[in-house]
């Protein structure tokens, strides 16, 4: 992380910035601290490059004076090889005359987000090349606008660095020739705009710099729509292996709906289209209802894409053994393999969701908590949970009907893991009455398909108000037997457990009461006693009971249960 030097200040009284442990960089000469102005000036590192973009002169940093923080520079003979466009009015006015001398970046603003495609004739060389960024303009500095972007299937920005792809080769093994795949942007740029394409190695060091010209293509009419055709399909899932893109490592006991499968359609112009594997356009053959209970078990399956009437593809397969009235008369299949493996408990998680009353206009909204099989956390992830597109989202005003919702969460987005990992889950919700109506229980939850009975039936936390802040809460559910109470308040939430090593989840010996602002801890022995709570509560609030098992060295979180309040 950059930090100011504490040894010197500039003539303006401001200290320059020094990042001694940063990645190797190329600096502009105007950015370097020279003993004068300190504002927005930087001290480079030994071995960094410094460039004068006006003269194309370049230097390498050979040492840093620790007293003055001035860099000793040694000029690089011949300068750096930076391909720079010669900007002339005729070039900008009529780019078609110069296509054989220059490279272009094609901008399509007819889609959202916009699509950027680097000229397919352009290649990147060198085994060290790893990814690129596309900058707007010709001069690179710390304020330069990065316009290249990668989005996931939910429309979330993933990165501004575009991984390189191995270029197609004819008759030889390609080790060091790369192409730049299409990416996206939110920046609208006119024809003739200059962008700078910077190639980096895997450590973030600059490999090459090249300037290109923007050409808008969204409004260009396709002379022949058949030119764009489907060349391939592929399967996308967090469980696909890196060394074999046709092998999916299938976690033990995970149902098919939890695999978060997406199909990708590859087109002849280099573009791609991602769609969920939901049986509409994409489906899988051979995985339906498959759940393996044996590690190492292998299965073969196929990904199938059904073509529309106006779609053209290579490798179209006609299967006379399938009812064409249902599937259509054209589809593409691709073969894959699956292997059952031990689950990573850090990624084996479960969402617990409960309706929270808002008001008469909005009804209920869902609040979600996440627990993992390692039992290391129980956290509120409401803001990170998404309703999946293939199901109707939760309706907080729909009473008396069962709502089956499909939800997902990216664990990286919620800062749970450092890798993109999307957990998908299905829940049943039944709203009975509004939050202010205390004539009966307000809602119930099915955490598993076909669960009976649902969690929440006749469940209330009894609330006695002593004064404005002091409350007494009883969570016994009017039960007199501990085992019956534990069944209703905890076991019906279907807590996580390892089916290979455990017969059930470890029984809690402590619990916490979570109010909207505070938490209060109690031993499980107080399950049927009056619990004093110092907090302001509304009768339409939920409280949450977090169950955990305390050992000598840690707390293991084994469940969380939502309870509506019932005034006594």
Q: What share of the residues lie within helices?
A: under 10%
CA distance, first residue to last residue? 56 Å
Low-confidence stretches: 1-5, 84-101, 219-226, 315-328
Strand order of the largest sheet: 14-11-18-19-8-9-17
Q: What's the Cα radius of gyration?
A: 30 Å
How many domains? The number is: 4
The rough form would be described as globular
Structural class by secondary-structure content: mainly beta
Counting H and I runs of at least 4 residues, what is the number of helices? 3
- Please indicate the percent range of residues in DSSP E strands (runs of 2 or more): 35-45%
**How many β strands by DSSP?**
40
How would you sum up the major sheet? Answer: 7 strands, mixed
Mean pLDDT, as a whole number? 82
Considering the chains and any ligands shown, give keywords for the structure.
single chain, 568 residues, mainly beta, Immunoglobulin-like, 7-stranded mixed sheet, 3 helices, disordered N terminus
Write the layout of secondary structure elements.
Layout lengths: L2 E2 L12 E2 L7 E3 L13 E2 L5 E4 L4 E8 L6 E5 L13 H5 L10 E5 L5 E5 L5 E2 L5 E6 L13 E2 L5 E3 L2 E2 L1 E2 L10 E3 L3 E3 L8 E7 L5 E11 L13 E7 L10 E5 L10 E6 L4 E5 L5 E4 L12 E9 L17 H4 L3 E11 L7 E11 L3 E10 L5 E3 L4 E3 L14 E9 L11 E10 L11 E4 L14 E5 L4 E5 L7 H8 L20 E5 L4 E5 L7 E4 L7 E9 L4 E13 L1
Parallel strand pairs: 2-4, 3-5, 8-19, 21-26, 34-40
Antiparallel strand pairs: 1-2, 5-6, 6-7, 8-9, 9-17, 10-16, 11-14, 11-18, 12-13, 15-16, 18-19, 20-22, 22-23, 24-25, 25-26, 27-28, 28-29, 30-31, 31-32, 32-33, 34-35, 35-38, 36-37, 36-39, 39-40
